[in-house]
UniProtKB/TrEMBL annotation:
Domain of life the protein comes from: Bacteria
UniProt protein name: AbiEi antitoxin C-terminal domain-containing protein
Length: 129
């Protein structure tokens, strides 16, 4: 549903990390990224938030099916990079509580380079060592 409310978009950030079992926390806000302006919607008792990224970084997602519905969600590496990108912009520490075995460091680094930000690249390298 998140992909239909605000398109084009894909579910990412902490929600996708939780979905893939990368972080231990349960995330209730459905977090996504889009190439359009940052937005937030409340509908059907759920919160859907969208963060804007540049078009060159709008990749790294796949179609998943759950309970008869299809949705577009970031793979674990892209969700990790997207999350750390926005944490960096907000002055927050990188995600540190994660199951590193569920993240391919080389793939995550390729995604980080799409943002053209040396600090993000360094965060990804350091966190996944």
């Amino acid at each position: 549903m998140a992909n239909k409310i605000y398109a084009p978009s894909y579910v990412s950030l902490e929600f996708a990390l939780s979905y893939h079992g990368v972080i231990p926390e349960t995330v209730y806000e459905i977090t996504s990224v889009a190439v359009k302006a940052t937005r937030r919607f409340e509908t059907l008792g759920k919160i859907f938030s969208y963060r804007k990224i540049k078009k060159s970084a709008f990749t790294g997602y796949e179609i998943q099916k759950q309970k008869g519905f299809s949705f577009i969600i970031a793979d674990p590496e892209k969700a990790f990079v997207d999350s750390n990108y926005f944490r960096m912009l907000g002055g927050l520490k990188p995600i540190s509580r994660l199951d590193k075995e569920k993240i391919n460091p080389e793939k995550a680094l390729r995604y980080a380079k799409l943002f053209g930000n040396s600090k993000l690249i360094s965060i990804v390298k350091t966190t996944l060592q």
